Each structure stands twice: as structure tokens, then as C-alpha cells.
Amino acid sequence: MRPMDLAGLDAGAILEACGASEGKQSAARRLAELGIPTKKSEEYRYFDPRSLMEKRWERVVNTQGEPDVGDALVICDGVVIQIPDDDAVGVEIHGGGAVDAGHYDPLYYLGHLLSLRTVSVRFKSDAKVLIVHRFNEPEKLLGYRLEIRLDPHANVQVEERFEGAAPGAFVLQGWDLSVGDYAALKWIQQQTLLAGGHTPVFSHSVTVGRGGYLGMHTFDYGSGEGLQPMKVALEQDAEVKAFHLLYAEGEARRGIVSKIIHEGPHALSTQRAKSILDDRARGIFDALIKVEHGGKYAKAHQNSRAILLNDGATMDSKPQLEIYIDDLEASHGSTTGQLDPEQLFYLRARGIGETEARKMLILAFANEMIDLIEDENLRNRLYGEFEKVYYGESHVTCLETCHGCQENMLKEESHG
């Protein structure tokens, strides 16, 4: 199938062209309203989707068997091959699933229409789960969805990893996530994409219930292309903290397009992005925080910082606030620049070569985001993954030395 062929069709014709069931009628209607995205679409202005939309794709078609039971939820080319051995976690596999009728992203709806299946995960109580996605089908279009639900008061940590190489593939995936009242979710996602590999567009819809909490940490590395559009809705007293670290090199195009919407009063949102861009890489942070009329007494803060390592790199940073009330606290900002010459001079004055000094400053910049992870084992793994991409190998002792340098610098500065 060729996604661009769906342009201009009505909902019935879209359903038929996608081979989707009547139960996905609402997704087809919304896709007909929004249209197939082009370079001129607002949400895709920095991530031209034409090569994905105009290609005629062979879709991945496979059969779901009985999954094994193990330490993690493992999904291989949309097939669940392992479910976690944890009574607090319920997993179901079906062909339907809830659809957010107010999402802004047309590929969110296309993803639903082309999904092989939906993997529903319900957290009934506190749990810690690893979700592994594997991609092995080159040059094909793969679609599947995850439906995640936290029962009220559940406290959950999800680590999401991506494995495998599917050169030239297009992966349409994403979460429909519901954080129940007074529940808490820490969602830590790490993804390294290589040039010529698969291109993921992970489109998410998130609702955080009354008094609920979502801590989102995304770590995107490498020279490949990919985008994560997401919509997050906050009810009364809900809170989201979203932290994004991007290291892109080569000809990469990577980033986040997000809309965080304060629907209920007293909700809090904090969004911070750090991007390190090398070669001719392009980073994207196109983020909106919207405070609706019902979002009184909101606190909303947004910030993006980017370092360009050479003249060929580009950062498209667009933090935005859209506010319809007076009673709130809000801020946003964005900076893009080079490495701080004063810090570079400081290190070089102590006998450190320029190349090593630059690496130390980059690691210190990145580690500020990795240090936010409380789980020590996971934090060390993320240090290692960043090192492997940045250095080509991992040696945590260097990072420890780097931390030491930072501390020494701060001590010396505090003593004048």
C-alpha cells in the first residue's frame, strides 16, 4: 500500500484500502479530516514525510502464537513472543483498542488503521517492567499499537528498549496510555537508530488522571531518522515531567513533536530537552504546552538547550505556550549554541587536550539528563549506551572521572 493514495478518500474508502475492521471507523474518519501529512503539514514541517508517504509498501503480515513467560514483555515485528511473569501485570492481545478522537497527528490514526494487533497491558498494582521491541523485516511497513493502563494508585516503572535492524523499514507504533487517578508511571525509553536502518514514527496519546504522575525520560541517539509525536492530557492535580536527551550525528533527523494540555486545575508540567548535534544532523523540539479554560492554577515550564558541534548541524527548536487563563505560572525558553569557550579554556589550562576537553564537556552536558534516573543499574546502562554512540565504546570509569572534574570545577568556583 502507498499511504499517499489515501489522500482525499472518505472514511469508508480508507477503511477498505487499509483492510481495517468497521471498529476502526472513528480512526478512518479522523484521518479523512486531517489528511495524509506532507512537508507543509504543521506537525511535520521539520520532518519531511514524503519519502515515507509516497513509497509503495509491502506490509508485514504475521501470526500471533502463544507467548512464553519470562522477565520482560518482548514484541518481535508486532508479535508478542514473551510476557512478564508478574501477577501485577496483565497482558492481552487483540485487534481493536481505544482511539483518541482528539489527536492532532494523522499518522496516529494511520497507525491504528494499519496495526496488525494491539498489545494491552494493565498494571493492577506496583510493578517494574522491561518492554523490548525487535524489528527484523527490511523494506516493509510494520504497524502495531500498545495500550497501557495503570489502575488507580499503582506505582510503575517501564523501561522501553529497541533492538534489531530492519533496513529501509517504516515502523508505525505508539502508546495509548492511561495513568489512573493517583497512579505514578516512570517511563524510560532508549533508542539508537543507525543510518539506513528502519524509520520509526511513534505516535502516542497519554492521559494522566486526577493526582496522577508521569515521569517521561527519552534518550535518542545515532545517525538514523525518527520522530515521536505525542499528546499528553492532564486532569486535576496531575503532573508530567518530560526529559529528552538527543545525540544525533551524520544525516540524522530526530526529535519530538508534543502537545501537553492542561485540562483540569492545579496541574503541573515540566518539559526539558537537551540536544547534541554533530555533522549534518537535524534535531527537532517542536513542543506546545496548552492551558485550557479549565486549567486554572497551572504551573507549566518548558526549556530546550542545544549544542551544535559544527556548522552543518541544525536545531529546530520551537517551545510554545498557548494560554487561555490568567491564574497560572508559566515559562519557556530555548538556547542553541556552541560549547562554552570559557569552560573549554578552563580544562585546557589544566593540561587537557582540546579533543578530550570537548568530550568531557559533552558528557557533562548529557549526564545531567541521565543522572535524573534513580535506578542505578539502569542509569549505568544509559551512561554506557551514550558512551558507545559518542565514543564508539563504553568505559564507565571515564564518566566517573568526568563527574570528578565537574565537582572539582564547582568547588574551585565556589572558593573564588
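That was protein one. Protein two is written in the same sequence-then-structure order:
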Amino acid sequence: MFLGLEEMKFFKLRYTLVIGVIVLVAYVAFMLSGLANGLAQGVRQGVDKWNATSIVLSEDANKSLNASSLVMDDLNQVEAKQKEPLGQYAGALNKVGQNKDSDKINISLFGVKEDSSIKPELIEGRYFKASGEIIIPQNLVDKGIKLGDSVKIGKLDEELKVVGITKQNSFSIVPLIYTSIDQWQELKFGKIIEGKQAPINGIVVRSTKTDSIKLTDQDDHLAKYGIEAFIQKLPGYSEQNLTLNAMIYFLFVITAAIIGIFIYVMTLQKTSLFGVMKAQGISNGYIIKSIIAQTFILGVIGVLIGVVLTLLTNLVLPSAMPFELDSMNLLIYSLVLIVVAVLGGVFSIRTVTHVDPMKAIGG
């Protein structure tokens, strides 16, 4: 290690360039990781906040909440401890008095019972008690909608009043609003439908494992799914994760190749030096340890600077950007980048072991 450190001090510019490459690759990998995690949270956050174990949908819906079509009477076909009817609506919201298309904000809306256990926690105001009332997430407040405001959603003529605010919440990457089942029906179907045949999209189950849920439906049109299986089928969720993670994994391979090429070229330039060292009795093992220690130090410095740049960038990113750093992912990716940097340095070991001291010093 001493030999490697002394060489890095002597050739500052050369090794600064190597560190610069590692910094850039680490920075891109960390930013992609933050974007991938932010997008994933934006899609699944609303479902995670249910703290549910399972969801029951119509069997022909292919695990799609929007495509599922059930009725209130189906609740009696599900044997579970806690089961909550749920309706979903996707549309656009605009504040009363702001009627331009540019004023509209895309939203998702869940309709639940007034006493439902899957309602998100409030940070301001109260829950809806009657038709015409909604609660909105903080991410809609950031877009200019406030407690007490009246808004219009979709083609509904009636104005809806904001009576409560929750923490940041989203579903399918857009802000998630909650309201009553009756209000959801009026939004989606233009009227309130009461009784056993009142439509809903799904039944959320809490406190009962998926395998323990019993469906007693005689028509066999119900299907139960674990929450994670349901999330994996949310539109675009698996595809975007697969794409962004693939880009990160390719960056790891590219990092190993770049570091390997840099160290290999620098090793070739030092062939004569290694020949002299071997002629003086310094073993291959000592030289190899020096190279590995050198690439380890380069990797650690480059990754640490990449982490600092990513954290600083996170402070200035706009709130609308779905960017969320996960400390565990950041740690894992940092360790992987350091390991691949060391592996890149290992490529040049064969060259060192084949250096002939007599040829290297011109004997």
C-alpha cells in the first residue's frame, strides 16, 4: 500500500483523472438509483400505506384494480378479519375558478367507507363525513391546492371541498385523493348506487394472510392476490424498474472495464520499474498487493465523492421530480462499485507476473 500511495502522490494528475472517471460513473449510478426508487415509490406508495396483506379482485381483471368489477355483496363472499371495499378513479382536478387546460392536475382517487381502516393518516383538517368532501395529499398542496379550497374533478358538475390533508401520497405516479364510496360512484358513474349491487373495484384485506382468506363465491369470479404480487402488476411498475436497474448494472460492468483499462495501461508504462524492483528481490506478491491497494483507494475516494455529489444534487432537485435515495441501496451500490474497481485492477496482475527483470532493464 505504501508503494501505491507514494506513486499516487507523485503522479497526481494521472490518478486524479482515474478518480474523476469513477466519480462520474458512481454519480450516474446513484442518480439512476434515486430516480428508479422515486418512480417506484410514486407508483406503489398509495398501496403500501394500506398496510394490507391481500386484495380481492374479479378473476378476469388480470390483477388490474381499474379493470376489476365487483359489487358490495361480494364482501359477504370473502372470509377475512378486516376487509374494506375500494373504488378507484383516475382523472384530472382543477381548482374552482381555474378552468384552463394548463391548470388541470392529473390525480388518482380512491373511494372508501367513512370509517375505513385504510384511510391515510391526516396531518391537517379532518376526514370526509359527507358527499362532496375529499382529503388530498401534501403533493397536491405543493401544487397550490389548500385546505378549504373547492375543486372540480372530471365531468362532475358538483364542486368538492378539501377538508383534510395527508402526507405525501401517490398512486400510479400521480397524487392520490380519498373520498367516500358514494362520492366515488357519482364521479365514475354519474350517480349514487345503493344496496348490495353497488359497484366497487376491489376488496382490501388486512390482518389475514392471503392463503388463509376463504372465498365462498359460488360463481367463482373472485380472485385473491398478495399485495406484492398486485403491486408488481401495476401499470409500468415492473417495466420501469427492470429498465433502470439494467442501466445501473451495465454501469457496474463499464466501471470494471474502464478501471481495468486504465490500470493495465499504467502497468505497461511501469514495466521497466517493475523489472528493477524484481531485480532487487521484491516479490510479485508485494507488487500485486500494491496494485490492488491502489485501485481500492481510487475506488473508495471516487465513490465517496460520488455520494457527496448525489446528496448535494438531491437538495436542489425540484419537488416534482420523483427522486428518492434509499440508504441501503446507496450502501450496496457503493460497495459494488469499489469491488468492481478492484476487479478492474486485477486485470493487470498477469502482466506484472510475466515481467522479466533482465528484459525490462535492457539486460
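The first strand starts at residue 54 and ends at 58. Keep this in mind for the problem set.
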